[in-house]
């Protein structure tokens, strides 16, 4: 009696079709994996990389950190300040040195050093970058430049991640600290959910998603901000339309002269600069700044936080909450100011003098 089976009834071409489908899905997976992988950085000094144009130090792990010095000579300085630049900037973007009046610079003996954060301009990338590693980079820079046992730190915007870390990891090295419009991590655990959610929702929809991706799926950050199907981060895209009115006015006054070095900023690639900023800044931190203790209980130094109340990049409500949780921080809120208020006339003088002189401290 003739009997049939499922195998014998199957079309001879079914096995080939399954293999073709398998090959197709493997190709799609490989293509997707390749698309989400960032290109390797173009290291400065490598055969195909950018040139090295300024001094650099070699760090503990073999990386190099580029820096530039300002103000009075280092060995004659009374006050030595390390300046940490913000996102999409570099060591040359030091408004605190460029706009500081000669009277204050000479009168207070001010020396400043600004450096390229890892991956920016001429500093080697650090794919393992964390807030703590940034603080240790700053400490090592200070040691190799012989800045002494204590020094000051000023951190602007995304440079806040390194500045908060200095308060946490190298407090014994700090003579005083100033945070200027520091970017805030919406996932710091001590923020009440309603306050952080309200602030988060003040961002444009595309920026909300870009920040979410950096926090929940950091491995997707490069693809998310590089694809052309929908807009990624406004900061990565250099979308000036998102700025406040006061910021746009400042940008207009500054003009193109401010960014003569703009080509250097991302010359090693976008991923180890702006994307890494987002991954570190909005990732999961080892500590919450709102749990920090007063570094200067005897008023031998001071910590300051400056914020404009019309800043569309960093919500003022979150800075107010931080200042409330940390009453030992001197909080300075500038009415009508946006994110670029340090470039407004007289602001740098006020910020630096307030940090360096006890009679300049004000709430």
UniProtKB/TrEMBL annotation:
Signal peptide feature range? 1-35
- InterPro entries, alphabetized: AB_hydrolase_1 (IPR000073)
Give the keywords, sorted.
Hydrolase, Signal
User: Where in the numbering of this chain does the AB hydrolase-1 domain appear?
Assistant: 81-344
Picking any one GO molecular function of the record gives: hydrolase activity
Q: Which PANTHER family does the record match to this protein? A: ALPHA_BETA-HYDROLASES SUPERFAMILY PROTEIN, HYDROLASE, ALPHA/BETA FOLD FAMILY PROTEIN, EXPRESSED-RELATED
Q: What is this protein called?
A: Alpha/Beta hydrolase fold
Q: Which organism is it from?
A: Arabidopsis thaliana x Arabidopsis arenosa
């Amino acid at each position: 009696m003739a009997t049939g089976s499922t195998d014998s009834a199957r079309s001879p071409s079914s096995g080939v079709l399954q293999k073709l489908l398998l090959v197709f899905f493997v190709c799609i997976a490989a293509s997707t994996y390749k698309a989400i992988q960032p290109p390797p950085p173009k290291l400065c000094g490598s055969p195909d990389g950018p040139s090295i144009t300024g001094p650099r130090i070699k760090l503990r792990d073999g990386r190099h950190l580029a820096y530039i010095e300002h103000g009075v000579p280092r060995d004659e300085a009374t006050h030595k300040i390390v300046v940490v630049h913000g996102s999409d900037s570099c060591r040359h973007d030091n408004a605190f040195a460029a706009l500081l009046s000669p009277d204050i610079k000479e009168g207070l003996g001010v020396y400043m050093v600004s450096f390229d954060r890892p991956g920016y301009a001429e500093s080697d990338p650090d794919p393992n970058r964390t807030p703590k590693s940034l603080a240790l980079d700053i400490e090592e820079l200070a040691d190799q430049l012989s800045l002494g046992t204590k020094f000051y730190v000023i951190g602007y915007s995304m440079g806040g991640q390194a500045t908060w870390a200095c308060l946490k990891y190298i407090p014994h090295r700090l003579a005083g600290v100033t945070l200027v419009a520091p970017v805030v991590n919406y996932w710091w655990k001590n923020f009440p959910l309603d306050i952080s959610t309200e602030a988060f929702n003040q961002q444009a929809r595309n920026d909300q998603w870009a920040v979410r991706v950096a926090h929940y799926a950091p491995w997707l950050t490069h693809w998310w901000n590089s694809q052309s199907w929908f807009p990624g981060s406004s900061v990565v895209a250099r979308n000036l339309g998102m700025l406040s009115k006061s910021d746009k006015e400042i940008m207009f006054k500054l003009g193109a002269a401010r960014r003569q070095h703009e080509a250097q900023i991302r010359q090693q690639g976008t991923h180890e600069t702006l994307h890494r900023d987002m991954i570190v800044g909005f990732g999961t931190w080892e500590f919450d700044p709102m749990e920090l203790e007063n570094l200067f209980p005897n008023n031998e130094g001071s910590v300051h936080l400056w914020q404009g109340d019309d800043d569309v990049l960093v919500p003022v409500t979150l800075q107010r909450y931080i200042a409330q949780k940390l009453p030992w921080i001197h909080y300075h809120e500038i009415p009508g100011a946006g994110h670029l208020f340090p470039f407004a006339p007289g602001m740098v003088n006020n910020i630096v003098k307030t940090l360096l002189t006890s009679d300049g401290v004000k709430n």
